[in-house]
Specification:
The protein has 446 residues and is α/β, with parallel strands linked by helices. It has 18 helices and twelve strands. The protein has helices spanning 4-16, 21-32, 35-40, 42-46, 49-53, 102-118, 139-153, 172-186, 206-224, 241-252, 275-284, 289-295, 327-335, 351-359, 367-370, 373-387, 393-417, 424-442; strands spanning 58-67, 73-84, 90-96, 124-130, 162-165, 233-237, 256-261, 265-268, 300-303, 315-318, 340-342, 363-365. It has a seven-stranded mixed beta sheet, with helices on both faces. A hairpin with a 3-residue loop joins strand 7 and strand 8 (265-268). It is globular and about 60 Å long. The protein binds NADPH dihydro-nicotinamide-adenine-dinucleotide phosphate. NADPH dihydro-nicotinamide-adenine-dinucleotide phosphate binds next to helix 10.
Amino acid sequence: MHHPAVEQVIEELKARNPDETEFHQAAHEVLSSVAAVLEKYPEFVEARVLQRLIEPDRQIMFRVAWLDDSGVPQVNRGFRVQFNNVLGPYKGGLRFHSSVKLGTIKFLAFEQVFKNALTGLPIGGGKGGSDFDPHGRSDNEIMRFCQSFMTELYRHIGADTDVPAGDIGVGEREIGYLFGQYKRLANVYSGVLTGKGPQWGGSLARKQATGYGLVYFTTRMLSARRMDWRGLRTVISGYGNVAIYAAEKAERLGAQVVAMSDSGGYVYDPNGVDIALMRSVKEERRARIDVYAAERRGAEYHAGCSGIWGVPCDVALPCATQNELDGEAAKSLIANGCKVVAEGANMPCTPEAVQAFQSAGVGFGPGKAANAGGVATSLLEMAQNSQRLHWTFDEVDNKLHSIMNGIYDQCSQAAEDFGEPGNLVLGANAAGFVKVARAMLAQGVV
Ligand code: NDP
């Protein structure tokens, strides 16, 4: 369905932000699927909700200067985009990766607004990061970079204002250095960052939450097709935080994870990936994935990460980065009999890939719903920080599980309400959008 307001807003957005192609892509996906919502609620069009929604509340860019181990000054660029806070304080991760630019952070922050709305929890959307590349940097270099980054960021964030977390290249180590510097500058011990270590304010199960949540969501997609995980050959791209814990949970539920990857290549392990070994390679040794293949009998390493989509599977979980799975890769998955695809990463499937899956009847779970378990559990970390309490792993995991079930139900109900049962892309966008738009109307033109 088309709506004239949508076409016009997309054109304006492209004209005003000409170089931000990833932001165009994310906005196009959301806006083109809310046409039916605008038909039903003309008051959103009258109040020019779309025009207001696509302009971030605030975008902050800053210089991050730091000294490397040889004493040479290095300069990177830092970002924080505070997109929309009608539902709660800005919330969203920080990404450290050489590919980061303003358009990347804007697309991630925009997605985050609707994802956070879907969780049903009181959080708005933001995202940040830097073009800093942590690969090959020493612990001391990482620390100095994080301290310099926070020296500017700290004045823009706060436990009730904006609460960053991790993303690509930002895990517990980086959150630790960032938190230490925030505490020193602000002189408060507050829940200003999530993803902290469990001994110093972090929540149990936060590390596992995005991957586990992805598997809980996929379980519902499978059961809608009268399937469960037992014996399902599963391909998971990436071997980072999301990928590893998705693999762990899928395997516990009976799946056989046969391939994982990094940005250089992928591992095919026909006997099922040894998750403990994979975790040790990535988390403890911070080594590349080819080290796994060298140590694991029967596993093969193949250079080139996109080859992973040629491995035959029943379920594919792209958990690495945006636009990693294109139309060709989708065709190959479909030809090899893949039945369900759910996005662990943000926007890993190109529009052509999504279209191909939907036309072929492959179940497709969009990232803003399927990977929302991480941010939901971040909110649970904030709740524990405010209460000065710690919940058990099972308490957090049970809450996560029921939040993911709730997200699936909302998406599936909204898809039905807006005339396309089973279309979870439409369902996720429509359900998230309605919540945000209603709150914007209630809070006036600000
Ligand atoms: P990590 O940094 O822990 O891991 C990222 C993984 O992706 C690494 O294996 C990395 O390999 C790989 N990767 C990065 N770029 C590419 C590329 N161009 N091609 C192939 N592989 C690549 O990040 P996370 O696991 O935290 O994040 C992964 C995705 O999940 C991101 O899209 C993120 O936005 C999303 N996400 C994360 C959440 C979280 O809680 N952490 C929450 C919701 C979404 P290499 O080391 O070679 O770069």
